[in-house]
Design brief:
Layout: H1 2-13, H2 22-26, H3 30-39, E1 53-55, E2 60-62, E3 92-99, E4 102-106, H4 112-125, E5 130-136, E6 142-148, H5 150-166, H6 169-187, H7 194-206, E7 212-219, E8 222-229, H8 237-240, H9 253-271
Antiparallel strand pairs: 1-2, 2-6, 3-4, 3-7, 5-6, 7-8
Length: 273
């Protein structure tokens, strides 16, 4: 997958360049790569455990492509997260503030990189962020992948919750399709595709009002939102309350009849069959 992504990116940024990829031509396994490094006096940096993996700010991928046995477990290879059953018995509550869809403050931390590192730490300490999935690669071959991504897990859930509070029903419904397409394009090496840029523009537009604060409880692998607020909130309890008279249900009579009208037509048509 990575070689597709890198080559496509090079061809877009500098189409005149020839891509030379000796690693691809040698067709080495990860074990053979490690042996080659040692041959030239370079000790591979491997996380603990027997699989190895790749680590960056967003995630730790564990033994990508090395875990074919779908029943196998590798508890010793996790380096960021504790098992949920061994996480503290006392929940950890954190506060996250977003501005236009971007996390800008987490428990007083404002630097973007430090926010990610902090969430990785507190999330991992509370068993949040372990992922064991089957993926369809660019060529359609399935592989099992293990990841640790505490910060991403927390931010994805809280951001989606804030969108639910501030976006309209129609925006949310359409954005689900956009998000799915966007993720597939990025995964499939289409970062610079014109459609991806168009989707970026739509997503950026939706984030205008995605600002607010959420209180989040981390507990034994769970991310629970226990409080939320936004000056752009579309939540109006006085209109939905059964205890108050903010919404006169009689006002809906005409709208309900009009909404049901097409179904009358569907019924009449089916009676003719």
């Amino acid at each position: 997958n990575d070689q597709f992504r890198m080559e496509v990116a090079v061809k877009y940024v500098a189409p005149e360049l020839k891509v030379i990829a000796p690693v691809r031509e040698l067709n080495l396994t990860r074990t053979e790569e490690e042996e080659l490094l040692r041959k030239y006096g370079i000790e591979p940096k491997k996380p603990k455990g027997k699989l190895g993996g790749d680590v960056n700010m967003w995630s730790h991928s564990i033994g990508s492509g090395q875990i074919e046995d779908l029943y196998s477990q590798y508890p010793e290879d996790y380096i960021w997260t504790v098992p949920p059953e061994k996480a503290p018995d006392t929940p950890k509550t954190i506060s996250i503030t977003y501005e236009s869809g971007v996390p800008v403050d987490v428990d007083g931390i404002k630097d973007p990189v430090e926010i990610i590192l902090y969430l990785n730490r507190v999330g991992g300490q509370n068993g949040v962020g372990r992922i064991d999935i089957l993926e369809d690669g660019i060529l359609g071959l399935k592989s099992r992948e293990l990841y640790e991504a505490p910060a991403a897990t927390i931010l994805l859930k809280t951001h989606a919750d804030l969108e639910q509070l501030t976006l309209t029903k129609e925006q949310l419904r359409f954005k689900k399709e956009v998000d799915k397409t966007w993720a597939e394009m990025v995964y499939h090496a289409m970062w610079f595709h014109p459609l991806k840029r168009d989707l970026d523009a739509f997503i950026d537009s939706t984030q205008r009002y995605v600002s607010g604060r959420l209180d989040v409880k981390l507990y034994k692998g769970n991310v629970e939102i226990v409080g939320r607020e936004s000056k752009y909130s579309l939540y109006s309890p006085e209109l939905r309350s059964l205890k108050k008279s903010g919404f006169d249900q009689r006002d809906a009579t005409g709208a309900v009849r009009l909404y049901a009208l097409p179904y009358q037509l569907y019924s009449k048509r089916e009676q003719k069959v």
